[in-house]
Amino acid sequence: HTDTDEVLAEPSSKRVRPLGRVTSLANLISPVKNGAVRRFGHTIQSISFRGESKSPAPKPCSKSAAPTPPKRRNSTLWSESQDWSQTAPLSSREIKRQEAIYELTRGEQDLIEDLHLARKAYHDPMLKLSIMSQEELTHIFGDLDAYIPLHEDLLAQLAKATGPDGTVKEIGQIVIGWLPRLRAYRDYCSNQLAAKALLDQRKQDRRVQDFLQRCLESPFSRKLDLWSFLDVPRSRLVKYPLLLREVLRHTPAQHPDTSLLQTAISIIQDVLSDINMRQGESECQYYTEKLEFLHESQRDPRIQASKNLLCHGELRNKSGTKLHVFLFTEVLVLTRPVTRTDRQVYQVYRQPIPVQDLQLEDLQDGDVRMGGSFRGAFSTVERTKNIFRIRFADGSRSRSHTLQGNDVFHKQQWLNCLRSAIAEQRQALDTLCKPAELPIEPDENSPRNVSELPSSPSPQKSRRSRRSLCSMGKRKETML
């Protein structure tokens, strides 16, 4: 502790929650160092609040100028809210089951509260004060408040199923009927990446920055920035399988809800898969539209045809240059981020590599010297770590790229992602290359007209062609 901390320390008899734990949602999440597996939800969550760096320096801490405490959520347990004089004795397992159902209910209440807050505390004031235009706010907020009735309906059904003693007997039929309606979030979630980009761009405006900073410092925000509220639906969606599994875990095997909850979990997984697929397509389109090609030869048709972005993130090349690498289903693209009139684009670096022609090599620490500085050329103190190499498998295009991750975990993510993509392409080629049934050869003595001769290659030539095609996907990959 610093001297300042000691001066401001509260009496030991008073329990105080450390300030560092409530500053922002970002502090509750492990730092993301541009990891390879940057799925949509994680990507937008890890983007920093740019306005913070330009905010006025805070005043020195003092007791008289202490910040207003943030508003805190009610964390009461179900068992603490019960009047046990009116409730029949329950087993320990049933109490845990009711707690799990109560957690589902409380989460819906919190979600509805946050959706209302996003509209009333952010959207409406910014529109009224002309801080942002209606078009910009619509693009950023979407139809966020239109989802409130959806969650209010679930709450109403759960309330109706709650008995006079505060217990809920069954929820299986309720959630089975309600969960498919969450597909309504497909458009909202698909637009989040573009919405976050626009919000970050508008934060460069001093009025927007000042308004959002004031909100961040207000008690109602709970020290969360605007994006934390806009991201609430996505973070809530991924919790439903966990919440339902927790209820199921404490539900007896003979209970009517057991089979129904298993069905409900399957339903929500299908819903999330559908939403995730739409998110992936949207993310893929978003980044392909931001690619800038220096040469026509770089415009690989596989890029525009891509429907899925497997992973992307920052890596360094052998000279130490930061590259943003995109792995699409069928092609790997290395780029350099550049700014064009306040708009970030990704300038394609060298030639894109089709995944079917991609050769991956894991390198040991110290195998390659990275960086181009004069001092580094004579330094032997530190070995270069977390490196791997990619190259064209075709010898005629043998240009290779030695790339470096931030740490061992980052490198391993990339290796796993690349190997998975290569394996899928090889499997697709193997399926394509399975030998077809050859036609029955006619008897050599049978008469044949010239017009009956096949115009296609002979079976022997076809087999050679298939072998040649298959060999493209069967290059040896150096594994860990």
From TrEMBL:
The keyword Cytoplasm applies. Keywords: Cytoplasm, Guanine-nucleotide releasing factor. It is found in: Cytoplasm. GO terms for biological process: intracellular signal transduction; positive regulation of Rho protein signal transduction. This is Neuroepithelial cell transforming 1. Residues 48-91, 438-480 are annotated as: Disordered. Residues 54-66 have a biased composition (Low complexity). GO terms for molecular function: guanyl-nucleotide exchange factor activity. Its main location: cytoplasm. Residues 96-278 form the DH domain. SUPFAM superfamilies: DBL homology domain (DH-domain), PH domain-like. It comes from the Eukaryota. Residues 308-423 form the PH domain. GO terms for cellular component: cytoplasm. Residues 75-90 have a biased composition (Polar residues). InterPro entries: DBL_dom_sf, DH_dom, Endocytic_GEF_Adapter, GDS_CDC24_CS, PH-like_dom_sf, PH_domain, SOS1_NGEF_PH.
